[in-house]
């Protein structure tokens, strides 16, 4: 292949292109990821917690398979075959955390995983997170230990292929899906616990167990810091987890909780008991108001209240289609004909939240609603990995392989969060600017663009492996220097 290269006033002829230099890689920044995993002892922690996967201790371990999947997804691969593409990069293999991992090998080992192995992976990730906290600058560590602690629980249906895939069911978009459930540490957006469940399984049934495992995965220093400060750990969950078991489990752990409620008829009847003058303006949400009702189910904790938000809609915002989401789940007059809605004095969309947070005054109620509205950490993990890693789909008909792939993108999200915390700029204990970040949060796409996808040449000189980069400023050198300054695992 040739290109014409022309300089003003002078023709240089044709430039020949050759893809025959095995010392080149397009993922030189993976060196930073590899060294970060080494500093945190990620693979070793997962292997120790997971235990052996095979009778013979040969080849790749369980921790290596999950870390290798995470590295491939960070590189931009979104299917198992991407492991083979990564493996084909000869120079890139020198800087990968798990070199030589083939797709067939990873799939074969993943099919051996059991429930105990998944719990081990969870425990290994928690060990690495605790190690990350120990390595943080003192002021940032103190901010996380002494500050608010929130656990977000979220689920989402993820597309999967194959009509016979275990646990898959059709969704409203006629797609076959499974349902990952994730609990995360909101202040850092680090996954704490996760489970891959059947698409038709009620999320409520596993909410309490997921919460217990998430609490156990929080670093001990964070739990002790909250207890010492007399501050309760908080829980936020969406309406898919509306169950008294989850609320009771949170109350038993002396936690604050706020769980979204489905728009069922009993909650709609609670609106009748709220006076019009009881509504107060919401914070940072135009045309929105909040109110509190003492309506609750008998099996919920005694201090539970119903926090209600309503948003006034213009007629132009209302669709004539009865299948429209705000008609079927929000508007209290959902059966009213579209022509009649325009004649209504006000059209409101309602949301309900069951919580034990103090809502005794209008200001406290508005603050509680604002806090719940910002339950975005677990959603960000799904959203970020869906576009930037590989959580948009599960690649196999085998449930165990899909679970391993899910853990791959969760580990990728954790690596992005660890890197953000450890290499960010700290100002008064607050994270002012993480590297790499977008909007103050670690984002995998940004990480890949500015740090991982760095063209480099790897050469040996005098017995030393040298990475050569293009001239000019490069984020990799600064991040790598910060990581290398961290102490090695003890």
- Major beta sheet summary: 12 strands, mixed
- Rg, rounded, reads 25 Å
Strand % is: 15-25%
Span between N and C termini?
Answer: 52 Å
The helical percent reads: 25-40%
Shape: elongated
**For this entry, what is the oligomeric state of its chains?**
single chain
Number of helices: 18
Broad structural category: alpha+beta
Number of strands: 19
Mean pLDDT: 85
Low-confidence spans: pLDDT under 50, at least 5 residues? 333-339, 426-436
Chain-wise SSE layout:
Blueprint: E1 2-7, E2 10-16, E3 24-25, H1 30-40, H2 42-50, H3 62-74, H4 82-87, H5 103-110, H6 115-135, H7 138-146, E4 150-155, E5 158-160, E6 169-170, E7 176-185, E8 190-197, H8 204-217, H9 220-228, E9 234-237, H10 244-252, E10 256-261, H11 265-270, E11 280-281, E12 288-293, E13 305-313, H12 325-330, H13 338-341, E14 347-355, H14 362-373, H15 377-388, E15 393-394, H16 399-423, E16 425-427, E17 430-433, H17 444-452, E18 456-461, E19 464-469, H18 475-484
Parallel strand pairs: 4-9, 5-15, 9-10
Antiparallel strand pairs: 1-2, 3-18, 4-7, 5-7, 6-7, 7-8, 10-14, 11-12, 12-13, 13-14, 16-17, 18-19
Helix pairs in contact: 1-18, 2-3, 2-6, 3-16, 5-16, 6-16, 8-10
Write up this protein.
With 490 residues, the protein is an alpha+beta fold. Among the domains are: 167 residues, no CATH class; 115 residues, no CATH class. It contains 18 helices and 19 strands. Strands 4, 5, 6, 7, 8, 9, 10, 11, 12, 13, 14 and 15 form a 12-stranded mixed β-sheet that branches. A 3-stranded antiparallel β-sheet has the order 3-18-19, with no helix packed on it. A two-stranded antiparallel sheet has the order 1-2. Strand 18 and strand 19 form a beta hairpin. Helix 1 runs parallel beside helix 18 and helix 5 packs across helix 16. It starts with a strand and ends in a 6-residue tail after the last helix. About 4% of the residues have low confidence.
């Amino acid at each position: 292949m040739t290109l014409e290269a022309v300089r003003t006033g002078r023709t240089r002829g044709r430039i020949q292109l050759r893809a025959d230099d095995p010392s080149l890689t397009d993922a030189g920044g993976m060196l930073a990821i590899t060294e970060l995993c080494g500093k945190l002892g990620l693979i070793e922690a997962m292997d120790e917690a997971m235990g052996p996967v095979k009778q013979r201790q040969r080849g790749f371990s369980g921790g290596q398979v999950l870390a290798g999947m995470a590295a491939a997804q960070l590189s931009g691969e979104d299917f198992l075959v991407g492991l083979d593409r990564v493996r084909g990069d000869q120079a890139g293999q020198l800087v990968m955390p798990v070199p030589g991992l083939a797709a067939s090998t990873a799939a074969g080992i993943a099919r051996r995983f059991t429930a105990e192995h998944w719990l081990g992976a969870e425990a290994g990730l928690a060990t690495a997170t605790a190690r990350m906290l120990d390595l943080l600058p003192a002021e940032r560590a103190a901010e996380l230990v002494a500050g608010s602690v929130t656990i977000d629980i979220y689920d989402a249906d993820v597309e999967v292929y194959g009509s016979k895939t275990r646990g898959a069911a059709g969704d409203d978009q006629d797609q076959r899906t499974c349902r990952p459930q994730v609990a995360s540490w909101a202040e850092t957006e680090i996954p704490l616990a996760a489970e891959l469940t059947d698409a038709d399984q009620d999320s409520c049934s596993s909410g309490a167990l997921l919460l217990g495992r998430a609490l156990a995965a929080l670093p001990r220093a964070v739990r002790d810091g909250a207890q010492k400060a007399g501050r309760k750990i908080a829980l936020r969950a969406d309406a898919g987890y509306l169950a008294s078991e989850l609320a009771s489990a949170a109350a038993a752990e002396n936690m604050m909780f706020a769980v979204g409620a489905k728009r069922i008829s009993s909650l709609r009847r609670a609106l009748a008991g709220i006076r019009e003058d009881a509504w107060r303006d919401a914070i940072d949400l135009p045309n929105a108001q909040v109110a509190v009702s003492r309506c609750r189910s008998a099996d919920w904790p005694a201090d539970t209240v119903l926090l209600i938000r309503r948003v006034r809609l213009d007629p132009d915002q209302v669709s004539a289609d009865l299948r429209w989401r705000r008609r079927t789940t929000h508007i209290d007059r959902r059966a009213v004909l579209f022509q009649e809605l325009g004649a209504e004095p006000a059209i409101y969309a309602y949301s309900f939240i069951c919580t034990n947070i103090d809502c005794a005054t209008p200001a406290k109620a508005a603050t509680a609603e604002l806090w719940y509205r910002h339950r975005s950490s677990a959603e960000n993990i799904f959203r970020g990995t869906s576009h930037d890693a590989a959580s948009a789909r599960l690649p196999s008909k085998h449930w165990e392989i899909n679970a391993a792939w899910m853990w791959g993108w969760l580990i990728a999200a954790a690596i992005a969060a660890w890197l953000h915390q450890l290499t960010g700029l700290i100002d008064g204990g607050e994270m002012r600017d993480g590297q790499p970040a977008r909007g103050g949060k670690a984002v995998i796409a940004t990480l890949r663009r500015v740090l991982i996808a760095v063209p480099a040449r790897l050469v040996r000189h005098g017995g030393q492996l040298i990475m050569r980069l293009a001239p000019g400023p490069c984020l990799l050198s600064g991040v790598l220097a910060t990581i290398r300054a961290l102490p090695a695992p003890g």
